Amino acid sequence: MMDRQPLQALGIGVGDEVIVPSFAPESSAAAVVMVGATPVFADIDPRTYCLDPASVEAALTPRTSAVIAVHLFGHPAPMRELGELAARQGIALVEEEEPAGDVGEIARRRAHARFLDSALTGVIVPYVEPGAHHVYHHYTVRIPGNGRPDRDAFARALSRRGVRATVSVPTPVHRLAAHRSREVLPETERAAAQALSLPVHSGLTQRELTHIADACNALGGLL
């Protein structure tokens, strides 16, 4: 979870703007507010769910002092591209990492993800950027259809089949009362309406994984 210390160490405060993702935990935006600065929300890459460098560049103003990159669901943010952008603009790049787990846990989650990647039909499985090391803190799929009603119906149907799926970002941060803003973030809104995280923790058995895949496939992707 992000706290204010990295921003304080950079001297960021009142009058500064910090670019953060909206499709993410609230902690990044909250840390910006705690030091007196203003969070500015940028859109995501629809495949990785991490900040889109092009959207970050479009959000820059003379008051921008930093960008906070969040590694979401276990997929790393595009640190090279964001670092190059930050260097060109003379602003700071702050990295917010998720707890990943030990090597054995990560290996198990990756093995589970590979099985689900090959077994699932009717949903859009997680994308992994070439060369990226996804640790699958969440295994987040897209439910095709008409957005939130179909996604929520899919989750309820899975629950009736004994599969507990979760909506990891039910409301984008820029639409929360404490951070409400006017930014137009179409990919963020689309992801918030379609994304659903399936169980992928290291303790799952092969039988449980097969049941997850069979339950999803039986629904056909769209209710």
What does this entry look like structurally?
There is one protein chain. The chain has helices spanning 5-9, 27-34, 53-59, 79-89, 103-119, 148-160, 186-194, 206-219, and strands at residues 17-21, 38-42, 64-70, 92-96, 139-142, 195-198. It has 223 residues and is α/β, with parallel strands linked by helices. It starts with a helix and ends with a helix.
What is this entry, summarized?
The protein has 223 residues and is α/β, with parallel strands linked by helices. It has helices spanning 5-9, 27-34, 53-59, 79-89, 103-119, 148-160, 186-194, 206-219; strands spanning 17-21, 38-42, 64-70, 92-96, 139-142, 195-198.
The biggest sheet amounts to: 4 strands, parallel
The number of distinct β-strands equals 6
- Tell me the overall shape: globular
The level of helicity is: 25-40%
> What Rg is obtained from the alpha carbons, in whole angstroms?
18 Å
CATH architecture of the largest domain: Alpha-Beta Complex
| Spatial strand sequence of the major β-sheet | 2-1-3-4
Low-confidence runs: none
CATH class of the largest domain: Alpha Beta
At the fourth CATH level, what is the homologous superfamily of the largest domain? Aspartate Aminotransferase, domain 1
As for the CATH topology of the largest domain, it is Aspartate Aminotransferase, domain 1
- Spell out the helices and strands N to C: HEHEHEHEHEHHEH
Q: What is the count of helical runs?
A: 8
| Mean pLDDT over the full residue set | 93
Distance between the termini: 35 Å
Give the class from helix and strand content and strand pairing. Answer: alpha/beta
Give the DSSP E fraction (strand runs of 2 or more residues): 5-15%
Please indicate the count of domains. 2
Protein name: DegT/DnrJ/EryC1/StrS family aminotransferase
GO molecular function: transaminase activity
Organism: Streptomyces fildesensis
Keywords: Aminotransferase, Transferase
